[in-house]
User: What shape does this take?
Amino acid sequence: MTGLFSEVFLSALLFGAVTAAIPLLLAGLGEQISEKAGVLNIGIEGMMLAGAYLGFVGAFYSGSLWLGFLTGAAGGAAVAVVMALLCVRIGLNQIVIGIALTLGLEGLTALLHHFQFSRSYPRLPAADATVIPLLSDIPVIGPAFFKHHLIVYLAVALVFGMGYIYRRTQLGLNLQAAGDKPAALDVAGIDVVRTRTIAVLTTGALAGLGGAYLANVGAGLFIPFITNGAGFLGIVLAMLARGRPIWVLFGALLFGVCLSLTTAMQVAGINIPTDIIQMLPFLAVMIMLVLFGRRASLPAALGIPYERGAR
Amino acid sequence: MSGFSSSSVDRRDIVALEGVTKRFPGIVANDSVDLSIRPGEVHVLLGENGAGKSTLIGMLSGLQQPDEGRILVDGKPTPITSPRLALALGIGTVFQHMMLVPTLTVAENLLLGGPWWQRPRTEELAARVAEITSTLSITVKLHAKVSELSLGEQQQVEILRAMLRNSRLLILDESTSMLTPKGIDELGALMRRLVEQGLAIVFITHKLKEAAAFGDRISVLKLGRKVGEIPPERLRALGEQEIVSEIVELMFGKQKDDPEAVERPVRTARAGAAPLLQVEDLTVAPTDNAPGLSSISFDIRPGEILGIAGIDGNGQKQLAEALAGQRIATCGSVRLDGAAIETLSVGERRRRGLRYLTDDRLGEGTVGTFPVSMNFFLKQVGAAPFWRNGVEQRAEIDKRAAQLVREYDVRTPSLKTPVARLSGGNIQKVLLARELAEGAKVVIFNKPTYGLDLANTLASRQRIRDTAARGLAVLLISTDLEELLGMCDRIAVIANGALVGTVENADDARTKVGRLMIGLAA
Assistant: This one.
């Protein structure tokens, strides 16, 4: 039991937490854009899976993690194109299409993986960490937070980038208007469909990137259903964050700790059934929802397709 | 009306409609309408609900496209295919329903629509706003959230937004419907200042007096057709009363005098009869956003109409709901035909003959997506003969519904039409038919003519009079004093949840009620 509190264990736990948090962070930030613009994107789990699969394939054949991230983001965005066409342009039900996309991609990615690799699960080489000088020498915190792949730092920087876009730019105003009162945006001369399409495609790309990170860096391989609900956790994060990217980051880290803890406790060999330990992250979701769910404020037009001049 | 001295100069229309027709499933919203809109003029579009005013505005602002005919801008045929194009052509619209994002500040709302890659130019905006507001003598709080502004303030923001976009034509769609009388006067003065600056204004309303007071040119629409136009020369020659009677002539072609004129009620109340409704000490605790009721007592005899006058929000709705059983009273008694009902449920009170016509017609009154036929029976679900053993009897329902539609003159394309598609007046008829059906003894009307056009207002009032004439007791809650004076036997005044006095509706009732309403003794 003493191992639980050793310095090494603690920094491994936190390192794992960050690794687990990054896909959630990217999914949550992505979902947040869609929701801000009034599109409830339940297909995000499918977009992550597409990103994980294509990201892995890209990295596997090219040998470049960065190319993998690119193909992953492109894969997520490609799924988002379908969502944008059906839900934003044609105005079909966002929940139904979202579920269909998720289920469809679960099957499709598993099938493609089976064709390509049969029953083998080839691994990628471990990702190179970008070690931040000085900061990484701090005990416990240093190895936990400052020895990650470059994309991790970029994802965290994205949180602040998003915050800037929402608060300080015309695009941020347009996105919020598209979600809160699309008719007002339309009569202001901005195309609501276009604004929402941009939002959904960005969601797809971010979710795809999150999936690619999950496969390429987090796991180092692709297995079917690898996202295991990460997209849905992203939806929860976006809803609880009340439109603020920084809260997505905090939420993602909290869930990351829970996820990492499950691994760590199993490794440490604590005498608790693994099923209970694996429940932990989802228990955390429920506790968060009970505590903060009531405070979630969602855009007024969330989930409602915009139709010009409709009464 | 400055600038009319030069009206002999050939002033070309900024925007003109030529034979514009627009059809929707089941109705012709606009039937070859011609319209000419000129700078320096307030052009009033007058018409009742469903006359096609909003559709016309939709086409001018690029939300809808005409099926036939054409729109000319500066004399050139120009299809207005999008709101963006309308704005670029200098056509700014203030819609009946506010088009501001409630979660953004005034400044952010005004900045909406700029190029997305730009940073919002707040300083530039503030300077331009200051310039415009000073010439119009209005004040606008740039950093307040829109959800914190009053409706009048929001409207000024919308007008300001149109001015910021260099609009040459400003369309105001039913802009006075949600304003206080003071707000309406201010809007009138603002419109005058705007046309003096050379703007053209299209002002849509269904209120005759506003049309007469604010208009330089009046076009009257009726069932999608333009039935007449009063040009500026003629408007200036006529007095307000003459204008109103001319408009009424155009709209109805029957009455010449003010159709809403007060007529003294015929007394039908039987003074000796036992009261049908007795309310004593009815008290409701106040909530965060609504006043309570304190110790309300009154009674109503058969055939009598008791009016409740007062400024909106003084407990009228709470009173109606407490009587109907929708709101819990902390103490007091309510007797219907002698029997105590204050502990009974909403449904049981209804079965005993207490009926409540809500003012929230589409919210609690009807289920918008349900067909007209089903909405007649919403409060009888499960009851024979319309349901048997829990199974809906479609034939019975349709038969009775068809009867009610005829009897109450509900104008609906079919029994299966979702009720929300009907106009306000027809939804009210559905409610009237439902609540006045068999077994009614006491009927509570909450603002029964609110938001209805003239024809439907008059029809509803006649229904209420007929109800009393049948020997029912009527409680008529209204914020329209004229309505109460024209219909009631007695008028009670409510203020802050308490009845501050009750007066007989005699010749001096107007002054007495007026004194009570402003807090003086009658």
Observations:
- The interface with chain A takes residues 58, 61, 63-64, 82-84, 87-88, 93, 95, 99-104, 108-109, 111-120 of chain B (CB under 8 Å).
- Chain B has 18 helices and 22 strands.
